[in-house]
Amino acid sequence: MSAPPRPGKTPKDENFPVVSRYLPAESRAPVLAFYRFARAADDIADSPELEAVEKLARLDMLDAGLRNGTGPPEAANLCAALAGTPASVRPALMMLDALRQDARGKSCESWNDLILYCSFSAVPVGRFLLALHNEGDEAARQADALATAHGVLGIVGNCGEDYRRLDRVYIPAALLPDRSLLAERRAAPALRAALDACLDRVDDMLAIAAGLPGRLHHRGLAAQAAMTVAAGRRLARQLRRRDPLAGPVRLGRFDFLLAGFAALLHRPG
User: How far is Cα 269 from Cα 267, in angstroms, rounded to an integer?
Assistant: First the structure.
């Protein structure tokens, strides 16, 4: 195999709080291990330097490592971090299925295709956090909506870069028939309309997710969820005002400060 792909984002580069001081100390190691596993897998799928067959082989190595606790360090470390917790490796295995789709370069034809993709790429993150904190199924609907909203926000924000670097398009073809518009450095009206249509649906999902903090029994996780809902709303507004083809659209410190105020309403007692 060729050299490993260059490292991608760190938790500080994300548009959502990966782990916050509101989570208990015993949760932080599994959450960071899950994030590092997901980031390593994502870096493989997103590498323009690797052929699809090699990407799939490396993802299979991570898959095997998750199942037997060996292999790549990210897989072994996640298995070790989950020992003695209520969570399992199943959400991470589901994410690998979505990343295999990334590696093969499959596109979305409809909004339902995009939602199905997010059910493997994003929803497992929320389900992992629920399981880790012994939350029941009553919060699953809101957690799924929150995770899917952030998944779509990431797709909208990275749409131009994904197309130029990887020839990858997850904006549904039903909304954007001419995918070549993603090659430009400024969003044409047709592309802007497609992105706004996606953001309209994100707003609907965030409205559902707004009830998540109140559904959670663990107050630290509720605070984390409140921050993530608030961050999603701020990012959605920025993506409406700014052009993701012209440059990165990311939340800054002030945005996270304001999102933190939402968490204060659900701070641990």
Answer: 6
* pLDDT recorded at residue 74: 95
Q: For residue 27, name the pLDDT band (cuts at 50, 70, 90).
A: confident
Length of the chain: 269
Q: Do residues 64 and 74 touch, judged by C-beta distance below 8 A?
A: no
Residue 166 — φ and ψ, nearest 5°? -125, 0
Distance CA 174, CA 176 (A): 6
Structure tokens at 55: 């990407």
Q: Please count the other Cβ atoms lying within 10 Å of the Cβ belonging to residue 43.
A: 18
Looking at residue 260, its amino acid is: G
Measured CA to CA, the distance from residue 46 to residue 99 in angstroms comes to 9
* Residues in Cβ contact with 48 at an 8 Å cutoff, skipping those fewer than 6 apart: 165, 166
**Among candidates 254, 77, 101, 192, which has minimal Cα distance to 182?**
192
User: Do residues 61 and 51 touch, judged by C-beta distance below 8 A?
Assistant: no
Which domains can be identified in the chain, with CATH numbers? Answer: 24-104 (no CATH), 107-269 (1.10.600.10)
Question: Residue 19: pLDDT band by 50, 70, 90 thresholds?
Answer: low
Q: pLDDT tens digits, residue range 77-132?
A: 999 999 889 999 999 999 999 999 999 987 899 999 999 999 999 999 999 999 99
Q: In one letter, which amino acid is 23?
A: L
pTM of the entire structure? 0.88
Q: Which of 42, 43, 20 is nearest to 32 (CA)?
A: 20
CA distance 144 to 140: 6
